[in-house]
Structure of Phenylalanine--tRNA ligase alpha subunit:
Amino acid sequence: MKLPEPQVAVLNAASATEEQPIDRLAQAAGLKPETATQAVFELRDDGLLDVAETASTEYELTEEGRAYVDAGLPEVRLYRAAVDAGADEEPVQMGQVIGAADLDGPEVDIALANFGRKGYGNIDSGELSADGDADAGSDPEAVALVALANAADGAGAGDADGSDAADTDGSDAGDAGSAGVGSDEDPLADVDDDVLDQLVSRNLLDRHERTVRTVTLTDAGVTALMEGVEAAETVDRLTPEMLTSGEWRDVEFTEYNVEADAPEVRGGKTHVLRQTAERVKDVLVGMGFQEMDGPHADADFWINDCLFMPQDHPARTHWDRFALDVPPIEDLPEDLVDNVERAHREGVGEDGDGYHSPWSEDFARAIALRGHTTSLSMRYLSGTQIGDLEPPQRYFSVEKVYRNDTLDATHLLEFFQIEGWVMAEDLSVRDLMGTFVEFYEQFGITDVQFKPHYNPYTEPSFELFGRHPTTGELIEIGNSGMFRDEVLEPLGVEHDVMAWGLALERLAMLTTGAEDIRDLHGTLADLDFLRGAEATY
Ligand SMILES: N[C@@H](Cc1ccccc1)C(=O)O
C-alpha cells in the first residue's frame, strides 16, 4: 500500500496494543505535531487507526510555587524557626521567630495563616508556640510541589512542549508509552485531591484541563503494516519550477481530503433582538406607520406630566426613575405647559376635575432617563416635532427605555419598547385590538389576550398577553389604551388617539423560545443561545 510519507511514519509509530497520545506519536515519527495530527485523522478516515479522546488534568508550578520549591513553604520555614527558638517548649515572641525564618512582605501573612491551618502551632497575643509533634518535614503540600518540580526537570528535553506540566489522571493514556520519552510516571499520583485543590487555591499550582487524543492501530492498520506500506511520492504543491521543467506531468499529487474536520468558524451576525426590531419596523411601516425619534434623557414634562401622571404618583418617586444630575430643560412650549398645569389642577371639559394636588413647573422641567417612549408620542402629538397633525396619522418607535426595576427572568433595567399610536376621526377598542391581532400575526403569534388595566393616561386601558411557546405560560407583552381627554386636550388634539407600548424583548421571548429575558441581552446573555437564535418569521 502506498501512503503519503507522514502517514507511513505515523502508522509505523502506532501500536495496536498501546494507546499513544498524538504528541508522543509525533515525536516518535519525527513529525511536527500538526502534521502528525493531520496524518492521524487521515489514517482514521481510512480505517487504519482508532482515535480516542480522554480528558486529562495537568498541573504546572506557578512562579510562586517554583520559588517555594527552592526556599521552602513559608509556614514550614516559620515552623522550623519556631522549633529552633524553642517554641515547642514555651511560647516565643512572634517578631523574633519571623525574623529568624527570614520571611518578608506578604510571606509573613501567608506563613501565619497556613501555620495555623496546618496545626503547626498557635499564635496568641503576639506569642507563638509550636506543636512539637507536627511533621512539617513531610508537609504534603511541600512534597507535592517538590515532586512536580523534579518530574518536570527530569522530563526536560523529552517533554514534547518543554513545559513543567505533569499529566495526572490521564495516566491510562500517558503511561502506556513505549517511545522512550522521559518517564511517564505521574509525579502527583500519591497526592490527595484536597492537597492539589489547596495548592491551586494558594496559586502555587495552575490546573489545566486538556483533551488528549490517543491513537491505536486498527486490525486493518495491522494488516496494512504486515503487507507493507511504503511512502508514495506525492507532491502537495505545484511550484513554478515544476511548471517550467514540465516535471508536473510525471508527479503524483496528494489528494485533498474534503471530509477532514475543519475548525468551526463563527462569523458575526445580527443579534436576534436587532433582527426582531428590524422586522417590527418593517411590519409597522407596512401597516402605514412612520417612525418617531427623540431624546433618551428627557424632561419629566414629556415623560409624565403630559400623560396626566400626577406629580405625587408613586412611579415618579426617585425609587423608580433614573434621575440625571443635569440642568433642567429650558425650551418647553409655554402654552402647553399652561394647558398641562390646568389639566392637572382643574381637569378638562365642562365637568372635568383635576387632581387638586400640587403641580410644580420645576418638577416638570427636571431631566430623567425615559421610563417609556410615550414621551415621544407626547412630543409628536403636541405638534412641536412635526407640526399640527391632520388625521389619520400613525407613528411608532422601537427604542430603549430605562426603569429602576429588579432584574429577573422577565425584567431588565434597560429594554426596548415598541411605541405606537394612531390618530383618527373615530376610533374604538375594536380598532385597537384589531391592530394588535394584525401586528402579532406577522410574528406567528395568534393567541393574544387582553386584560382590562389602569393607566392614568388612557381610558379604557388593556394589558396584552401572549403564550410562551415552551412553558405555555401567558406572559405580559404590552400595555395600551385610548388617550384620555386630559391628555389630548392640552396637546390640542381633537381626534381620537389609540396608543400602546409593547416590549420588544418579550416579543423575542415568544418567537425564540427564550425563557429568561437575561439570555437575550445584557451582561448575562447566553452566547450559545444567541448564536443559534434566529428571527424566523
Ligand atoms: N407607557 C405604557 C405603554 C402605553 C403607551 C401608550 C398608551 C398606553 C400604554 C407603558 O410603558 O407601559
In short: Residues 273-296+371-532 form a domain with the BirA Bifunctional Protein; domain 2 fold (CATH 3.30.930.10). The two ends are 55 Å apart (CA to CA). Residues 283 and 439 are 7 Å apart (CA to CA). Confidence is low (pLDDT under 50) at residues 156-183.
